[in-house]
């Protein structure tokens, strides 16, 4: 422990610090840490239901609770008030894995529809997302064997606040279909990493339906906000998509890692992913009455991650979780207000959740390059102080600072201090 | 906590129980649990070096230490005594992910060699493993887009103790090459899940080299034993393979999840897996001097898993870790002795590590079906007692019980009690 304190801690980036405003926060709680601790001690590898019944049951229960919090249609749930649902969920490690497994299911479905055997038609399948979609989506497509030439990154612009334009999507999908390709999968993002842009889920699902393509919603960060009625409209239309993933390890107080994937028809996933080796055969599986979660993920082994999610929801309850989201959003609004009140700065895109994208405005004799450079220097100088940590992005060719509120220990005073530091550092640069 | 005790614990399969002999044990230790606890609290998502320098450095250090323990060639190490190595390691969640990412790297290398663009030649690539290889390998091949028709499962038999026969491998690879396919990847297993069979790493690497195919060694379970000189020969020839993975979460006291993947040329992996979105760009990455571990895995986010592995090695040291392996093997030997001394039973395959595959022998008027049924009933009756938990497999068409020693709290008395229970239960069936 001494070596840890003296040699390791000084070299860590302190994601848990209230002065951490970079990337997206990894929110945390005593309930989640306790859940992880107990799971570490139990150390079950619940790959099949039979390998640890309560581990699977609790994961399914926690996922169904979260689905209720998010007001997802019951078609995504494992159990409904009238019995077993057709949908299902699974806890994975990352959004990337959620994308990968649904891409594989979609690809199998497309090959099946076209009556193809094997992958001989794989080069004809095409996939779609906005250029603001996380880079990991395009990587997942390559991992799953899609032809890089058929992975479409559709340009976005300020007219849609960098969200995917459904008519552009239609245009691109139609052109591909006309050229003999098979439109297979569309990824819509609710709350992009770069600037928190929101793709219109319902409109995108309508377009995709024309081609029988799978629609996945990546709500890794902003999905957590959708437990509040005032943000839920961002998921409107979700009843028409095939799958949705969101990560409570980002904004729902559940420490790493916990990505929840829901699919409307669990069998479409497990048909592609199931294995049945002799050494895992058991009566429960053969009864067809249980869920074997290994058949909804890449690997076999799996930790008891349902426990921490269950403990977070059980400990805090709906109201407290909503308050947590609202408090972060209120702090982000306050920061946004500070920025707008200082005419040296601009807010670059509308703030949707708790991320504020801002920059020193181009002014006077500044060129665009000068403004970018000023913002780059601002970020470097801020981060060098060790008193705040921010990351950047590029939006519409402009270098932009991302101020992501929400680290679990953050209070108004930390946001205010960071703003004071930003003002002071900017004065140092601009004078 | 009360609800956990009353509603959840009774439904768990207690993997940590000393009476757990099923599957492979998930070994554990206070050091690993503490490492996980601290990592949960720090909650860093060290996707890039810059996102938490010490998290990456410690993971790399822990992996290099483990490589030294395993006497892997320095070509697999990130740092060598003379500076930075060309190899590298990464901690992943499962062996399946290690297989998937190396399959993708191998597939890109094969396409590159054949001058193909995109995946248009993917249907020509072929992959190889013994029929005893974990089913997750064949699944990983499908996930990566290999044509199911070109995924070869090579039959094994008692003449090689169910290990892959290198001359059969050569035959199959040559036939494929003659038919215009491109032999791309061979998976060799050291310690199969079913019966702990060992594929001959060196001989397999020699065959694969004739076709320029990637060789991966899956030593998920038995790799841990190779820290003892008396088991290290199972890795002979590893200097000629491209990658090797082993899981300290199985047999090296490091709780779930911790799969260590080593590759001989780290760039072959990162060339296939790297992403470089604007919001993750940073000076450290651009310097080329650091490792961004996100470029060696499926996803972006990652937990600080290096900490627990470092804490286990730091706390126990080489000698104690070797003693831990030897103590488990000694208990397995004792159990094997018990079985051999009772003529109602047989040991089905030679015991290589701490797994004993045994069964009630066919005798008297018993048919093969009767013997299988007797063993099935034995397992069911044993497990129903709640005093021991065993799993089964099928070896050479026979139903076989797997007695896997090694659960961390296990002592000789637990093995002895389990054997007494087995004898008594068998008497109940046979009389």
Secondary structure layout:
The structure is a homodimer of 431-residue chains.
Chain A lengths: L1 H7 L21 H13 L10 H17 L9 E2 L2 E2 L3 E5 L2 H19 L11 E6 L4 H9 L7 E4 L11 H13 L3 E8 L11 H9 L4 E5 L10 H4 L10 E4 L1 H4 L7 E5 L2 H8 L9 H5 L18 H36 L3 E3 L7 E6 L7 H18 L5 E5 L2 E7 L7 H19 L1
Parallel strand pairs in A: 4-5, 4-6, 6-7, 7-8
Antiparallel strand pairs in A: 1-2, 3-9, 8-9, 10-11, 11-13, 12-13
Helix pairs in contact in A: 2-12, 3-12, 4-5, 4-10, 6-7, 12-14, 13-14
Describe the structure.
2 copies of one chain form a homodimer. Chain A has 431 residues and is α/β, with parallel strands linked by helices. Chain A has helices at residues 2-8, 30-42, 53-69, 95-113, 135-143, 166-178, 201-209, 229-232, 248-251, 266-273, 283-287, 306-341, 368-385, 412-430, and strands spanning 79-80, 83-84, 88-92, 125-130, 151-154, 182-189, 214-218, 243-246, 259-263, 345-347, 355-360, 391-395, 398-404. Chain A folds into 2 domains: 2-27 and 317-430, Aspartate Aminotransferase, domain 1; 30-314, 3-Layer(aba) Sandwich (Aspartate Aminotransferase, domain 2), CATH 3.40.640.10. In chain A, the strands form 3 sheets. Chain A has a 7-stranded mixed beta sheet with strand order 3-9-8-7-6-4-5, sandwiched between helices. In chain A, a hairpin with a 2-residue loop joins β1 and β2. In chain A, α12 (306-341) packs across α14 and α13 (368-385) packs across α14 (412-430). Chain A is globular. At the A-B interface, α1, α2, α3, α4 and α5 of A face α1, α2, α3, α4 and α5 of B. Chains A, B: GO terms for molecular function: carboxy-lyase activity; pyridoxal phosphate binding. Chains A, B: Keywords: Decarboxylase, Lyase, Pyridoxal phosphate. Chains A, B: Its cofactor is pyridoxal 5'-phosphate. Chains A, B: Belongs to the group II decarboxylase family.
């Amino acid at each position: 422990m001494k070596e840890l304190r003296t040699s390791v801690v000084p070299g860590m980036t302190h994601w848990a610090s209230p002065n951490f405003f970079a990337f997206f926060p990894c929110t945390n709680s005593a309930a989640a840490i306790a859940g992880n601790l107990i799971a570490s001690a139990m150390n079950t590898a619940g790959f099949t239901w039979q390998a640890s019944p309560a581990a699977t049951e609790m994961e399914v229960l926690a996922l169904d609770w979260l689905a209720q919090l998010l007001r997802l249609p019951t078609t995504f749930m494992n159990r409904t008030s009238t019995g077993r649902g057709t949908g299902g969920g699974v806890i994975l490690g990352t959004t990337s894995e959620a994308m990968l497994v649904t891409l594989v299911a979609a690809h199998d479905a497309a090959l099946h529809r076209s009556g193809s055997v094997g992958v001989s038609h794989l080069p004809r399948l095409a996939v779609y997302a906005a250029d603001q979609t996380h880079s990991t989506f395009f990587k997942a497509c390559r991992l799953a064997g899609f032809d890089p030439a058929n992975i479409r990154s559709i340009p976005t612009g300020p007219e849609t606040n960098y969200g995917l334009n459904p008519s552009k999507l239609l245009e691109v999908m139609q052109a591909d279909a006309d050229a003999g390709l098979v439109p297979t999968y569309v990824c819509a993002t609710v709350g992009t990493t770069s600037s928190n842009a929101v793709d219109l889920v319902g409109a995108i699902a309508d377009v995709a339906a024309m081609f029988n393509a799978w629609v996945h919603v990546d709500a890794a960060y902003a999905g957590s906000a959708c437990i509040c009625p005032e943000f839920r409209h961002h998921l409107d239309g979700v009843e028409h998509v095939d799958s949705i993933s969101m990560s409570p390890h980002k904004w729902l107080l559940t420490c790493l890692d916990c990505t929840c994937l829901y699919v409307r028809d669990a069998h479409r996933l497990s048909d592609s992913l199931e294995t049945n080796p002799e050494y895992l055969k058991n009566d429960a599986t053969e009864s067809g009455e249980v869920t074997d979660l290994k058949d909804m993920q890449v690997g076999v082994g799996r930790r008891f991650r349902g426990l921490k999610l269950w403990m977070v929801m059980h400990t805090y309850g709906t109201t407290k979780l909503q308050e947590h989201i609202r408090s972060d959003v209120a702090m982000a609004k306050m920061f946004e207000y500070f920025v707008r009140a200082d005419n040296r700065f601009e807010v670059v895109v509308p703030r949707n959740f708790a991320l504020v994208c801002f920059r020193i405005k181009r002014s006077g004799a500044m060129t665009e390059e000068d403004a970018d450079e000023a913002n780059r220097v601002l970020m470097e100088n801020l981060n060098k102080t060790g008193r705040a940590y921010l990351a950047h992005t590029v939006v519409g060719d402009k270098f932009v600072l991302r101020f992501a509120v929400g680290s679990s220990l953050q209070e108004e005073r930390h946001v205010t201090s960071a703003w004071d530091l930003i003002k002071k550092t900017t004065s140092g640069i601009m004078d």
